[in-house]
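We emphasize that the prediction below concerns an isolated chain of 722 residues; any contacts that depend on oligomerization or on bound cofactors are therefore not represented. The input was used exactly as deposited, without trimming of termini.
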Amino acid sequence: MREHTPHNNTQTDFNEEDSNTSSNPHFEQVLDTRLSRRSLFKGAGLAGVALGATAMTGCATTGSSATSVDRLGFKPVAKSLADAVIVPEGYTAQVVYALGDPLTASTPAFKNDGTDADFEHRAGDHHDGMEWFSLDASGKPSNSFNSRGLLAMNHEATTDEKLSSFFIHANGGTATLPRPAAEVDKELAIHGLSFVEVRADGKRWAYQPGSAFNRRVTTMTPGAIHGPARGSEHLVTKYSADATQCRGTLNNCGTGKTPWGTFVSGEENWYGYFFRDAKDDDARKKDKQVQALKRYGRKAGEASRHGWESAGSDDRFVRWNNSALAASAKADYRNEMNTFGYVVEMDAYDTQAPMRKRTGLGRFAHESVAFAKPVAGQPIVAYMGDDARGEYIYKFVSDAKWDPKDASPANRLAAGDKYLDKGTLFAARFKGDGSGEWLELSMNNPVIAGSSYFEFKSDADVAVFTRLAADAVGATKMDRPEWNGVHPRTGEVYFTLTNNSNRSPEGTNAVNPRSYKDMKGSKEQKGNVHGHIVRLADASSAGSAFKWDIYVFGAEADADKSSVNLSSLTDENDMSSPDGLVFSPATGICWIQTDDGAYTDKTNCMMLAAIPGKVGDGGARTVKHGDKDVTTYVGKTPTPTTLARFLVGPKGCEITGWCETPDGRAVFINIQHPGESTKMADVNDPAKYQSQWPANAGYGAGKRPRSATIAITKNDGGLIGS
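Result of the prediction step, given as a token string:
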């Protein structure tokens, strides 16, 4: 996901009136769930249409791999700068669920003029990672398709400038400190998660505003600390003196679905929401956390992203001041930031069960969590990336061995306790010969136990200060590891490496081999501008050795094939900054989504479909950097039948979030922050908005752009992508 600098809505790569009732899902009636799969989608709408000023709306899920698609069956979509969602001929997209949509029957319709309130009962902002959970006709959990299900969704952040989340405030909000409490309360509520029921009636998907399953989780929702850091001195706060409880989840980016049927969400760029006084280093004296705070991006005196800490003396505001203000950690919030940065687990079907923060999976800028296929009698294995420049790729291996009975447990979160609270975390080291090793991050590793770089006293310290543990063992610094997915056929793991403006020619290596100059108009861009996707073949998912190569390099089609366009991409599949990556359980297709600022003079962000091979299906290549030659390993050159552009989004957006119905005949995608480059001063002048989507697609009131979920179906009722 895109990382952000405080008070600025531009991209960095640090480390980013009601419509008629026929087009607004808020007015849909209760839908008939007794429909055949084919009749559900046949005749769903216009073929090859742009979801823009004249287009339609849509949604999708996940299930078991019933069909393997070996060749993409759609005509690639062209690059586009239109303020619309473009899908292939023969497909229809429908808007389903957007920022501000009511989640209860009593919540007023969204006016989208900045006067709306009660965001605890509305869709949050910046729709991101997403997972599908089926319901049967009676509303019980199901593993089959029945035109009814739940979307579990992240709300990562908000479109902001100069402190304010300006689109949700009437006149753009307050751009100076102190921030008004009423504004901050809105912003506290639009972050977090939502769980929302959706249904289909044979022609369209619609969310259900009065469903008993609907739920919001915000920055203020109580939760529990689980795993090795539970009770740690570094998590003691005024709110939880015994370090077992916490409040809220923040900057949630990628997601995952566990083998036991729960939803997991990664907390990414949480550090920017906190403030430390300029003299806080001195106040902490010899506290080793000063080193950790700086390593995690919170230097003393730096402004916070929204200034939430300035809104008053109430506890809900004070907690964002991470300074050591009192005599002990039990009397202030010096450790509050340490309660963020984890994987959060929730049961999508249980609206009362509290969220659990799984500290055993480490603390860093989490993206998605991808689980290897569980094998009876073997550990559960999860893969994760840390989205910041020069950060690491991780693997978690459970102590508990998989019991197939846990695929449908009586208590899903108790199964999470079993498999995620105890285990071993590893960081990846990539070698120049195409091999690699997993480096153990625990007190059993003498490098950790005897580290002079940072003092680790326990595995709780490793869980809280994971980045420093990976530093200590010498893991490989990567070009922003974001989402990852496990190939359903080969079991290989794919990681997007979005970009890295700090990658110098001198700092290139086999797995991060590119550093080049790229022009965007008259602006020169440097480093690994367009990113790439690396894949790993774990000899044993619980073992220490792996092999790797680079599946594909992002590049413009006309770029130099010897140094930049190493994958020989064409106009049908060139891309920049791969971010989201998910494999379809139904078809095996790999879906790749972009969050780009480097190629946006030529095209808006996009989603591609891929049918990748396996590690080693290509060969070695040499990339020259002056006198330095770097040998890397590149996968088989893709063709438009194995890698093709499927969708292009509206202006200023990021394409993210993917899930499908278990039959693979509908997919749900998130359009995040359309119109992101709109200026705060123009908030009440629609003519100056960078985007007016989805209002220009006939969805909802007002013209302010809104993050939203779309559903995509094939007009003949077929499998998506085939």
